[in-house]
Automatic annotation (TrEMBL):
Gene Ontology CC entries for this record: plasma membrane
Alphabetic keyword roster: Amino-acid transport, Cell membrane, Membrane, Transmembrane, Transmembrane helix, Transport
Membrane-protein topology: Multi-pass membrane protein
Gene3D superfamilies linked: Amino acid/polyamine transporter I
Location(s), subcellular: Cell membrane
The protein's name in its UniProt record: Amino acid transporter transmembrane domain-containing protein
UniProt keyword Transmembrane helix present: yes
Major localisation: membrane
Organism: Brassica oleracea var. oleracea
The keyword Cell membrane is annotated on this UniProt entry: yes
Residues passing through the membrane, by range: 39-58, 65-86, 115-138, 159-176, 182-201, 269-291, 307-329, 350-371, 377-401, 413-437
């Protein structure tokens, strides 16, 4: 009997060491490292994640959807995504004593270890990497717009170079270790998004309704109208896509059994959603009302004068996109670092982080420079990955875990969201693909 005790001791020691090491790694990883965020952090992180530069294309989406369907889809999306966001916030701590700090951890809890990863991670990565690439292009384009507006006689500089200039900021900022350390950047970004949305709709309103304005569909053929409609669905879906980073943001809020993190988080989300409504609805409705179907896919392009105001708005877009890029890149950094440290047993160190993050920024920059017609790719990816992670994955997880009674209110609500989300997922890539084909026909690399 006596021989067994030391073996057990050494086993306990191993378990202790493993636990200590996991704790140490968690304290190093970007998402779990600091848990002292205030509720208003969650508000502006959510605003930054939610209000993309996509808000500027909302009038264009409205023009493709028409008044009736447009208003209905805008409001429906707002309600559904708020509901699925509430589900995510609730599910963050539904197992007592455990927190789902990342989207895929929740997926694993619902669908099992392996399947959960396979369902959530590819979608989350497509969304986050996709957003980062799009923002590279958006940032570059807005810088170019600013340059062209401020200095009309200057030599024209290629978009490629502007994307490089924009990326240079991220080579520095991406080394901020975690969510709380980028809260300053994020606050600036959230304020900016409100500012340029306000500029966009108030400048439109100041111009007044255009003479002989038309609200009909622009496409000549029926097929064109239908495809544009699908594509606009994707644009709207893309506008409400903050869910991929919700759990990661909530992970930074402190939590005790008496005061769970969902209280402050939900408060932040509600504030964020009010701000989102203040950004989205006026821009979409006023922009479409003033310009009708002649509005361009970026409303700042339709408003050329006053030049100084539009230049300012473009600069605001740049600052906001800087913040958004960081928020979407953080979970990717977390995944990459987790794999390297936990699976490949690298030591957590600053130079591992330095290499990983610089590599990621360089990669997104390169793709952005190569394919700047990423807007069409957006409706395409938006349908594939945004619709699921935002509109129906939370509902599916909710049904899988809570198993509400059949035909009860909760059951119906979730199924309606799932059906709506699946329709979005199927329809918007079709429209997006057509846009890509049309744009890619006359495209030259690195022009």
């Amino acid at each position: 009997m006596e021989t067994q005790a030391p073996a057990e001791d050494s086993y306990d020691k191993l378990v202790e060491e493993k636990r200590a090491r996991e704790k140490e790694i968690d304290a190093w990883l970007p998402i779990t490292s600091s848990r002292n965020a205030k509720w208003w952090y969650s508000a502006f992180h959510n605003v930054t994640a939610m209000v993309g530069a996509g808000v500027l294309s909302l009038p264009y989406a409205m023009a493709q959807l028409g008044w009736g369907p447009g208003v209905v889809i805008l409001i429906l999306s707002w309600i559904i995504t708020l509901y699925t966001l509430w589900q995510m916030v609730e599910m963050h701590e539904m197992v007592p004593g455990k927190r789902f700090d990342r989207y895929h951890e929740l997926g694993q809890h619902a669908f099992g270890e392996k399947l959960g990863l396979y369902i959530v991670v590819p979608q989350q990565l497509i969304v986050e990497v996709g957003v980062c690439i799009v923002y590279m292009v958006t940032g570059g384009k807005s810088l170019k717009k600013f340059h062209d507006l401020v200095c009309k006689d200057c030599k024209s500089i290629k978009l490629t170079y502007f994307i490089m200039i924009f990326a240079s900021v991220h080579f520095v900022l991406s080394h901020l270790p975690n969510f709380n350390s980028i809260s300053g950047v994020s606050l600036a970004a959230a304020v900016m998004s409100l500012s340029y949305s306000t500029i966009a709709w108030s400048a439109s309103a100041a111009k007044g309704v255009k003479e002989n304005v038309e609200y009909g569909y622009k496409a000549k053929s029926t097929a064109g109208t239908v495809f544009n409609f699908f594509s606009a669905l994707g644009e709207v879906a893309f506008a409400y896509a903050g869910h991929n980073v919700v759990l990661e943001i909530q992970a930074t809020i402190p939590s005790t059994p008496e005061k769970p993190s969902k209280g402050p988080m939900w408060k932040g989300v509600v504030v964020a959603y009010i701000v989102v409504a203040l950004c989205y609805f006026p821009v979409a409705l006023v922009g479409y009302w003033m310009f009708g179907n002649s509005v361009e896919d970026n409303i700042l392009e339709t408003l050329e004068k006053p030049a100084w105001l539009i230049a300012t708005a473009n600069m605001f877009v740049v600052i906001h996109v800087i913040g958004s890029y960081q928020i979407y890149a953080m979970p990717v950094f977390d995944m990459m670092e987790t794999v390297l440290v936990k699976k490949m047993n690298f030591r957590p160190s600053w130079y591992l982080r330095f290499v990983v993050r610089n590599f990621y920024v360089a990669a997104t920059m390169f793709v952005g420079m190569t394919f700047p017609f990423f807007g069409g790719l957006l409706a395409f990816f938006g349908g594939f990955a945004f619709a699921p992670t935002t509109y129906f994955l939370p509902c599916v997880i909710w049904l899988a875990i809570y198993k509400p009674r059949r035909y009860s209110l909760s059951w119906w609500t979730n199924w309606i969201c799932i059906v709506f989300g699946v329709c979005l997922m199927v329809l918007s890539p079709i429209g997006g693909l057509r846009t890509i084909i049309i744009q890619a026909k006359d495209y030259k690399f690195y022009s």
